What we know:
Shape: globular
Helix content: 40-55%
Largest sheet: 8 strands, antiparallel
Number of strands: 17
Distance between the termini: 22 Å
Number of domains: 2
Radius of gyration: 20 Å
Structural class: alpha+beta
Mean pLDDT: 77
Strand content: 15-25%
Amino acid sequence: MEGDSQSGQQLLRFVVQHSRKLQRGPYKVDQALQEAKQADVNSTQQIILRESESAWRAYYAAKKATESQHGFSGKVEFARLLDGLSAQSIEQQRAFAKELALAMEGDDLQPIEGDGDTGLRNGAKRRRTTIENHIPTPPTPNATPNGSGTFHTNLEPCASEQVPGSGVVREGVHVNASLKASKALFPVEFMDSIQRIPDSRLPDTLVADISMFLQNGHIRDHFGCQMEIGIAKEKIAHYAKILFNVEVEAKDGVRYIRYPGGGKIEPDPWIKLRACQRDAILDVFGAEVDLGFSSAPIYQREEREARDRTDGVSMTISNREKEGGKITLFMGEWHAFNIKKKLYG
């Protein structure tokens, strides 16, 4: 298990560092992007693309570099780690994709655009981050199963968090939340909007589509711990309006965003809404989640900057009306671990 987590750390670091050095994307990267959009929903590239196009471009550039005839230091090991990612479980790949997406956002990296050589930009100046000039080397959630709905990661030597009254709680990726515990946490209306999915261990049992990402490292220090909630397809327009004041419509099975004046934006295939209305968080998610969110590092930073809206809550929606969406929010670690204990035991 320890070897797996170390390999995961290496892979995430390799991909991020490789993307920093690139001047242009691989040959025909835009064509590959269109093919990735049509790939199997459970394929590695689809899983990464659903999180972030920038993350997918970094992943694809890394794959192409290891498949090229040009050698570079560490190429064999890099290729081995990339091949190993596709052999991991869906939950593990999703967790990796999320950390890669956050790393790309946190590093303020520009997407690797256009077709061209995978030449390196030797001595290229690093872009500064928007968060206290810190260049992250975030851990990878190369998780391994450890009990019902929980995937522990052991990413750092001190991979535990002391929560008052609960003993030592290990960090990790946690999925398949208890429906009963979720009902006690969220207001009735929001609970009715959360997707129910089969338990990965007990297919005849339904659980709430709620995931929590509690890894140590840059993301937790500067943004907070992460909660991701699956939203039923019929509730997408409702929460896009309440949280982001955005009009979402659908026609002939295609979902799009309408903006004032009559124009529309169609996700291709997904779009992420940010700048959430702060005064909606308490009513939608309830007092306990709102309190946890208010303690998140990203919220505290926005308070100091006197922001009226927050980027600590986002919503990812698809252009396909038959698909649901995901709401992601950050929380301070103390409250996140308490909520984790309630949802997953």
